Amino acid sequence: MMALPDPETFNLLVWDIVRQVPEGQVTTFGQIASMIPAPEGVDSDGYSRLVPRWVGDAMNAVSWKDDKTIPWHRVINSRGMISLPPESQTAALQRARLRHEGIEFNGKEQVDFDRWGWEGPEMAWCDEMGLYMPKSLRSRPADGPQQMHLF
DNA sequence: CGTTTGACTACGC
DNA sequence: CGCGTAGCCAAAC
What we know:
This protein is an all-alpha fold and 151 residues long. It has helices at residues 7-18, 29-35, 52-65, 89-100, 113-116, 123-129, and strands spanning 27-28, 75-76. The model has no long low-confidence stretch (mean pLDDT 86).
């Protein structure tokens, strides 16, 4: 698919991906970056090495104008934390929105990816967009708030 | 123009 | 584990 597009086009693509993240789930800058093919090819494990920092730039542009069609608050860093300055107004807004969607933070202000991490978009959508399927952020099946007994 | 600075990550002590 | 560092490239200084 396309080589690395100009920044404007790149942002549009990133925003399209972010729009796929369902309410009540989170993704990371790195996970999004790994979906986008880079001109220099892919890693040994099949994923592109696109600089996740650009994804951060794209998110910064959104939160600035607070485009309501883009759930920018669902994008956090690989440590499971909000990546904005902790004291900033924007960080507070992001945290409030995530809490409102039922996402919890542990004592270290981290989100548990095993419970709220996005597993990526539908494969059909990726094919259509010419993107890689990302690795799931979950290392084990999500155990809901209360797990169900099978007898 | 050279420098500095990022909503980042992976890796090594 | 936690913290420091190197590597990334575009944008702002």
